Every structure is written in C-alpha cells, then in structure tokens.
Amino acid sequence: MATGRAISDGSRRAWMFDVMVAPALRGLGVGEAVVRLLLDHPGVRGARSVHLGTQDAHTFYARSGFQHRADLPPPPFMSTEMVLTRTG
Fold first, then answer.
1. DSSP codes, 23-49
2. Lower CB density within 10 Å: C or N end of the chain?
3. pTM for the complete prediction?
4. Structure confidence by residue, pLDDT tens digits, 4-17
C-alpha cells in the first residue's frame, strides 16, 4: 500500500504531503511512482514550483529533482523544505 496527496493554488505553486509506502514495498520504486503520479496530476502539472517538507527522505526526493530551499536557514527545524522548480 502507498499513498500521497498534493494541493495547488491552481497556477503557480503546489505542495506535496504524506507520501508513504508500506515497509514491505520500499525499495521497489513504489514511492517514486507515487511522486510521479502526483507531479503529473493536472492540478499540479502546471505549477511552477512544487514544495514539500521532509525529515529524512532528502535523497529520495532529490532523485525526482527536488532541492533544499537555499533561502531558508539550515535545520534545527523538525523538517527541511525542498522545492522542485520547473522552467518553461
């Protein structure tokens, strides 16, 4: 089982939340498939930037193009905000 959700302002920004994969399915590409589906959703596809927060999945999201928000101070926060910026 896997899940995830996303919201969008309808034009410029979207946010991804709660991408979760059952332990037995981790490492099989299921999480990456969920992220791809969320990014390709019509409500998210047109967003210029997609934001998320993560505590421990930085490498996972970086594989999909997300980067640490350079304009925020480094953690001691509970989570780190990452962003996928689209051009063109």
1. GGGTTTTHHHHHHHHHHHSHHHHT-SE
2. C
3. 0.81
4. 999 999 879 999 99
- The answer to whether the Cα torsion of 51, 55, 57, 59 is positive or negative is positive
Q: Is 66 helix (H, G, I), strand (E, B) or coil?
A: coil
Q: Which residues contact 7 (CB under 8 A, 6 or more apart)?
A: 14, 15, 17, 43
Bridge partners (DSSP) of residue 5 are: 17
Interatomic CA distance for residues 12 and 3, integer angstroms: 24
Are 24 and 1 in contact, with CB atoms under 8 Å apart? no
**Of 16, 54, 11, 53, nearest in space to 36 by CA:** 16
- Residue spans per domain, the chain: 2-85
Fold of 2-85: Aminopeptidase (3.40.630)
